[in-house]
Each structure stands twice: as C-alpha cells, then as structure tokens.
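go over this:
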Amino acid sequence: MNKRFMGVLATVLFAGAASAAEVPASFDAKNCKADYPKASLMNEEQGTVSMSFLVSASGDVKDSKLDKSSGFKNLDKAAIKSLSACKFKPGSKDGAPAETWAKVDYAWKLD
C-alpha cells in the first residue's frame, strides 16, 4: 500500500485567555511535527486532535490533555506525545513570561 502523508496542520487557539493581560503560549508547527503512525497509515485513518498544553515560562510542556479525539487512539497518542516534546514560545501575564495553557488542533490528512 503506497500512501503518502499530505501534511499536518497545527494551529494555536487563543480563545479563553484568563484576562486581557494574559497571552497564551504559542506553537510553531514548522519546527515540530508528529510522525504519522504506521498502523494509522495502513488503515487510512485521518482526523483532527484537539489538545491543551500547560507551557512553563521557559517554553517547556509541563502537562497535556486531550480535549477532543480525532476518533483514532493512535493519532491522538502520536500528536500528544510529539507535541509534548516540542518547545513552545512561552505565554505571558502582565508582560512577563508565565506559565499558561495553549490549545492546539493537529490535523492528520492523507492525499
């Protein structure tokens, strides 16, 4: 079976900041990507995983949670595992780097 990975789209959603003085952490999808799970490729699984990451003031992920499943465990696990290892741009509170949550939607697509 010859499947080619079309691409992954990741976006950071800024809705839900605690106050106007809080800026959530941000994610650079160009510098951090997840590998398509082999079983998911074979089964032609596609979908979007919605996750939240608690990002430290230094940009490291301290915690993660699944907000909405893609419908496939392998895709969900691969996205959380890979993105948890990424470096984020820290968020801020009142202009100073701070621990904040970032919401990320990660889309798995095949062509």
Notes: The first helix runs from residue 38 to 42. The chain has one domain: 24-108.
